[in-house]
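Project channel, design review

CF: Before we commit to the Roseiflexus castenholzii constructs, I'd like one complete example in the thread so the newer folks can see what an input/output pair looks like. Taking histidine kinase.
RD: sounds good, go ahead.
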Amino acid sequence: MFSGLRLRLSLVYALAALILVVLIGGGAYLVVARYFSNVTDLALRHKMAHEFHALGAPLPPDLANADRDWSVIRREIAPLPFVQSNPQVERREEEEKIRPGDDERGDAELPRALTTPVDAAELAAIVVLPLDSSGRLLFNPNNLDLPLEPDQVAFQAALARGSDLRTITMNDGRRARLLTYRLTRADGPAALQLARELSDQEQVLSQLMLGLIGLGAFSMALVGAASWWLAGRALRPAQEAWERQQRFIASASHELRAPLTLIRASAEVALRDTPSDTADQYELLGDILAESDHMRRLVDDLLTLTRLDSGQLKLVIEPVNLADLLSRVHRQVARLGEQRGITIELTTVGGVVQADAERLQQVLLIALDNALRHTPSGGTITLAAAPTGRMVQITVTDTGSGIAPEHLPHIFERFYRADPARGRENGNAGLGLSIAKGLVEAMHGRITVTSALGAGTTVSVALPQGETTVAANDL
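CF: and here is what came back for histidine kinase:
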């Protein structure tokens, strides 16, 4: 029991750590990806502004803000460990001015977006594609072979809206960021396309992802080991207390058996020697015998539960012929049913199960005893068994008073009784179904109860079909 609880606690600790690692790693990955995306777009706009200036074309308003946005993104990503700030470059960017007369186009009147340098690596990675009115490349102004052809979809979108920004996939499967602007001058290109291949960024992101996964796996291994150790430390006091309780119950059960046996034997002797004309004494001795039997059953039930909890109950799992077992159980309870005016029927019986015959008989007697307690005179109890897939289902169905819906979820709890007064009156301690559940699960089966008030109750026991004999198994 505690090993399963320790495993669940360790999984909870590890899951919490995994969520934390995923949040931190995912956040770091998203920050880097956002940085690359923003820097790429701003570099494209910055380069486009310079190209507009070189062609002497009117500068669109959104390009005039490229320098301001670039400064903002530089400040936002400056704390990142892979971004190295250069105070001299930043000071030069702030102090650099275009002096009048630098060239014949009057650079003194240019927006500052055209005068502030961006990272040379970003600008060098951008490819310029001047396009004619049909979207064909006019010439190659770059110092390298073009890695891609002009994108006609982006060209048409720029003609319609003035500009277009998108990510495309090239013929070789690589991706590129593409910025297209329409030009209004009649003596130059109809549009400019700037492309920035993203392979280097995607490679960095892939390496970052692999690093985060490796770090996360290593962290989870450490967290898993620490969680297992921590769960063991947390559960150790409870486990020791539980073990002491189990030892006490087992010892008490053994110690109580001897005096109970002596009390019962003494009461039987006294009852035989009591004159028949002393009715009060007969009744008193009869009560002693009944209570002794009740206490003996309670001690046996507690001892069985203790062994189930500690895994020390010895079971002999072997093929059991249900026809023989159910016939024997039916004969035992049929006479008791006749005394109470209850008909006990044995209907469809078939199949062989892997079980402990003695313990399975105990489970069925518990179910039949409950059915007899809650079925009025004239009622019927039906015992049946039939294969269902790889299991064999044994059912005990009665026509008794049934169980209220609010009690059904609790009927397998120890000492739980839907009607405490009636249960005590009938000698029911509320341990029967708990024992039945423990025994069935120890035999790798399952037990369920369905009921409706006034209609009766059905107890179903499903056990694996028997094929070959299994050696004794200590559970």
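RD: helpful, thanks. Residues 1-120 form one domain.
CF: The chain has four domains: 1-120, 125-197, 233-310, 314-474.
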